[in-house]
Task: structure prediction
Amino acid sequence: MKAFEDTIIALATPAGSGAIGVIRLSGPAAISIVNKFFKGKFKPKDLTRVSTHTIHLGYIIDGTKIIDEVLVSVFKNPQSYTGEDVVEISVHGSPYIQQEIMQLFLQNGVRHAKAGEFTLRAFINGKMDLSQAEAVADLIAANSAASHQLALQQMRGGFSSEIKKLRKELIHFASLIELELDFAEEDVEFADRKLFNDLVQRLKTTLKHLVDSFATGNVLKQGVPVAIVGEPNVGKSTLLNALLNEERAIVSSIAGTTRDVIEDELVIDGIRFRFIDTAGIRQAQDEIEKIGIKKTYQKIKEAKVVIFLIDACALSRSASCHLPQHEETLRTFETELKQIGQNHADKKILIVANKIDQIDQKNYQIDTQKFPLIEISAKQKTGLDKLKKELITLVNKALLDQNEVVVSNARHFQALNEALKSVLQVEYGLQHNLPTDLLTIDIRAALHSLGEITGEITSDDLLDNIFRNFCIGK
Ligand SMILES: Nc1nc2c(ncn2[C@@H]2O[C@H](COP(=O)(O)OP(=O)(O)OP(=O)(O)O)[C@@H](O)[C@H]2O)c(=O)[nH]1
Ligand SMILES: [Mg+2]
Result:
């Protein structure tokens, strides 16, 4: 563990005016420097002698000039966020006051903190492991209940404790196997191959599970992409607008109105969805429309959920319906749907019948058992709650079992993938009785990737990369 010699300072709250601002210092001189410019409001107070986790009312004074009346919180090492002495000064939220106080300290032996430096120190001082430190950044960036929950779960330890445990067991076997190398001539086996294989199987299962969960985690973090597709004029853009509650896309009775892809986000029940309105699918003559339709297929590929929108009239034999291409639509409905289902088995498809305000009796010409319909009128905004509920159910079912561990960090995903690759190599080596020295190479590689997740193995480049993305003051 390395002790930092310098003391750092940063504004922990956003720049600009607010009710209060918080200036944070961390390092060996944090308390003594603040103490130099602090005067208790009611009686003299020596901050270097107060107990940890206490708050003190007083003034920050430069010579004889009072800069502000403040509250000073003192946290003594090791019981602080960074593990060092930490002082947080709550000042009045004017940028001028904040700058004056920051300048005062900067001229007296502290330096500006770099992005994420407080958290970096917390990591280096062993207050948290690397994946927990990364979760801090995710937590700050969380913009929906689901991404918030993911970050919180990771910050509390998430899967890294399990990885640590498995890695430790692997280290044990690694050392036994390396020992065998020293006795190569004698042909002895220190590492029980059966037990080792058991561990490899457990590692494989755990890693596979975590790697698979990334698809979920990433989606929750970025928003679940939902493509709205269907023939021209069925009301895709109207539905997008109705969901977002704003006139986002152009709506008209002319078939082929939407040519480009329009996307926007909406949080429903704490889960972020990204709705994608697309060009209606048909045999287009127009060059631009053709490009739009090509994009539609691209978007279906990227989506997790496909809303297959259809005009309720086309499905029903209601007298009020005057869709000329009734029979044809019915035919394309099944083929289109089959095609999407076949080409995209991994996607959830919701069949949504729009414009139900136009049919008086629901005399559907399709088997609604086979094709369960969600009925809406995008124009009159009816049935939308049912649709939203269906979306939430789909996502929840496919995704979070309350306590399920989910990987949402791209770096972890990569390291887990690497680790899994090495573990599979080790498994192969064991099954085929490969020479011990070859086995060792793969075990080392697996140990390395696993260690990179928890931070037991780090390089300066890796740390730089991670903490660069933090905000200053965290
Ligand atoms: N009666 C009724 N009309 C609707 C409903 N939803 C959409 N419409 C009308 O249907 C027409 C087409 O709507 P759009 O939202 O532009 O259809 P689209 O699927 O985006 O069409 P393209 O972009 O051409 O593929 C417009 O005249 C809408 O007002 C509905 O629920 N009921
Ligand atoms: Mg449209």
Remarks:
- DSSP finds 15 helices and 13 strands in the chain.
- The domain at 7-129 is CATH 3.30.1360.120 (Gyrase A; domain 2).
- The pocket of magnesium ion (ligand 2) is lined by residues 236-237, 249, 257-258, 277 (CB under 6 Å).
- The two ends are 21 Å apart (CA to CA).
